[in-house]
Amino acid sequence: MTEPFTIRKYLRDLPLPFCKGCGCLTVMNCFLRALHELDYHDMRKFVFCSGIGCAAWIPSPYFKADSIHAAHGRSIPVATGIKLMRPDLNVIVFGGDGDIAGIGLSHLVHAARRNIGITVVMVNNMIYGMTGGQVAPTTPLGIKTTTTPYGSFDPPLDTTRLVATAGASYAARWTTLHFEQLKDAMKTAVTTNGFAFIEAVSPCPTTFGRRIGLKDAAEMLRWFKQNTTLKEKANEMTETELANRIVVGKFAHTEKRTFTDHLQETLKKAEKAARKN
């Protein structure tokens, strides 16, 4: 890096759409700082995919890069198609927890299982923030939402652990309070050869915070600080002690063959067999 970071270098001159205190801006800042520290002076080697929701607005139309808005929950298969056709590109998906861990969950699991070489950043605000505050698959137990007025009765989905178990090369979870750790995780994800997943737990004062008695982003960040536990410490705690706590850290980091590796090997075998025939 020879020049100081400025977020505007990577953004089009458009007003950003996020509510006051929304963590999406922090996630955007972390990601662009990660690119700057990796010496990407522009984003010509990147393609961004997103679905529908607050976090889907992070890359498009604001990044000075090629981007595709897909249908709700369908950004990962679109990104997979791009990576298969252009393996030379860095293909990045941004989405919310409803988009990625709700309607798009099967795509997430199978992309991790295949170890396709894309990066998925899931901004988890623990609620459907853009559509009225409905319960999400990541909503903590007991939280009141518009669809669970007496409190959520489903345990939240541990998305990062699920992705790691499914076979991702890299999986990590941090909150937006953990700015440096989140940024470094994004640097690792972008440079990982294989499927990389980052869960960024994010404040949503407008739709989630007020439902749990937190009036602004500062109070939500203090709530994050009080309710997060490092993965290493969590390994020594009981399930009861971990109830509704946010476990942060690295859940998977390994080098292994990717879907593209297997595909190219299969294509070569098919070509060789065709020549013999």
Overview of the molecule:
With 277 residues, the protein is an alpha/beta fold. The chain has helices at 24-37, 75-85, 97-103, 105-114, 159-166, 179-191, 217-227, 231-234, 259-276, and strands at residues 46-50, 66-69, 90-96, 119-124, 170-175, 196-201, 228-230, 246-253. It has a single domain (16-276), classed as 3-Layer(aba) Sandwich (Rossmann fold). The radius of gyration is 19 Å and the shape is globular. The mean pLDDT is 94.
Short description:
The protein is of the alpha/beta class and 277 residues long. The protein has 9 helices and 8 strands.
Q: Can you lay out the helices and strands and say which pair or pack?
A:
Layout: H1 24-37, E1 46-50, E2 66-69, H2 75-85, E3 90-96, H3 97-103, H4 105-114, E4 119-124, H5 159-166, E5 170-175, H6 179-191, E6 196-201, H7 217-227, E7 228-230, H8 231-234, E8 246-253, H9 259-276
Parallel strand pairs: 1-2, 1-3, 3-4, 4-6, 5-6, 7-8
Antiparallel strand pairs: 5-8
Helix pairs in contact: 1-6, 3-4, 4-5
Tag the structure with descriptive keywords.
about 280 residues; alpha/beta; Rossmann fold; 8-stranded mixed sheet; 8 strands
Uncertain parts: none
Distance between the first and last residues' Cα: 54 Å
Query: Would you identify the CATH architecture?
Result: 3-Layer(aba) Sandwich
Q: List the secondary-structure elements in sequence, H or E.
A: HEEHEHHEHEHEHEHEH
Report the CATH C-level class: Alpha Beta
> Helix/strand/pairing class, anyone?
alpha/beta
What profile does the largest beta sheet have?
A: 8 strands, mixed
Query: Which strand order does the major sheet show?
Result: 2-1-3-4-6-5-8-7
The CATH topology corresponds to Rossmann fold
The global form is globular
Give the rounded overall mean pLDDT: 94
Assign the CATH superfamily: Thiamin diphosphate (ThDP)-binding fold, Pyr/PP domains
Q: Helicity range of the residues?
A: 25-40%
The number of strands is 8
Oligomer: single chain
Radius of gyration: 19 Å
State which percent range the strand residues make up. Answer: 15-25%
Query: How large is the count of helical segments?
Result: 9
Total count of domains: 1
